[in-house]
Write a structure and sequence with these properties.
Length: 204
Amino acid sequence: MLHDFLFDIGKVILNFDFNLGAQRIQGHCSKVSADEILPAIADLTDDLESGKMDTSSYVTEVSRRLGYSGSEDEFIRAFENIFTPNADMVALIDHLKQNGHRLYLLSNTNGIHVPFFTREYPVFKHFSGAVYSHETGVMKPGAGIYEAAIQQFDLDPHRTIYIDDLEANVIAGRELGLLGIHYDPEQHHRLLENLRALQVQLND
């Protein structure tokens, strides 16, 4: 039987390291040291991912705080390429797609990263749709972003397997009926065990 799958992205499909971006711009920042860059802009990044700021407004305010002297394009190039694919998860997604399951994305992310990872990583071609926090204006674990995905993709939550690396997000999804699995990339085999058990349950 075919099932619907709802996937988080960060630390599930892609690992990421914001420090890579900070390292690339540190030579252009006059107001902060290298290790102060990310703490200085953490609240702005939350605003970017929740849709309170667009990309240009974000870069403008980041530049003011950091004393960043580079261009917007240089900043985007520095911070967009911070990802490494999780090979185990990519293989699983390939397998699920080949077997006809419907795959969707649900992620706290932003307008800098989405164009990059959807362009650079072929695994994202397997997904039939996506709900992103910066577009909906709600971040996980807020109920609204799950409700948006359920409605947009016409999901039956009780037959939709949801995979996320943050337990709070999984719990929030379960409260709306989703079959949530807490994912640890260091314990990928546990995900496979949980999927087998869930699929047996759904097929009964």
